[in-house]
Write a structure and sequence with these properties.
Jelly Rolls; four-stranded antiparallel sheet; globular; alpha+beta; about 160 residues
Length: about 160
């Protein structure tokens, strides 16, 4: 009797922890691909522009985003190398921001654009790291009409010539 009670309590505890972890994970924003074909001409022309200036694409990804939520991207950068970062947000969003932090969580880049700016949905900047270390890039966009399912696109290019 004591053995079966122990077994029932163990199974109940296991079920409780499984359910609680499943519900806890529902609040996590995970990286999901999202490709908006309207971005394709912008992506292709930016790639051509930077490749003509001696850059090559190191990483690129489309991602599903939520309005007002940052999407953290962690990248290893090499000291003294010249990088170019590009973020393209939904054209209907009203605000676009990108923040970049070094390994010590010190903000090293901040850029913001608003709807109506020239190339308002594109943020691009160059960066030369002082140390070889991981950096965190956090793009965000604010869209009043569409809260979920926003598409974003990021590219990291490195100067090779």
């Amino acid at each position: 009797m004591k053995h079966s009670l122990c077994k029932i309590l163990s199974l109940t505890a296991l079920l409780f922890f499984s359910l609680s972890s499943a519900f806890a994970q529902s609040d996590v924003i995970r990286l999901e691909n999202c490709m908006n074909e309207s971005y394709k001409p912008q992506i292709d022309s930016l790639k051509q522009l930077f490749e003509s200036k001696g850059y090559e694409v190191v990483r690129e990804a489309s991602m599903k985003m939520e309005s007002e939520y940052e999407m953290p991207i962690i990248v290893p950068l090499t000291q003294g190398a010249w990088y170019q970062f590009v973020f393209i947000g939904e054209p209907t969003s009203k605000l676009y921001e990108v923040r970049m932090f070094d390994y010590n969580e010190r903000q090293v880049v901040f850029q913001q654009k608003k709807w109506g700016d020239i190339d308002g949905n594109i943020i691009t900047y160059s960066y030369i790291p002082q140390f070889s270390e991981y950096h965190m890039i956090k793009p965000v966009q604010v869209n009043k009409q569409k809260k979920k399912g926003l598409c974003g696109y990021v590219m990291l290019l490195k100067k090779v010539k």
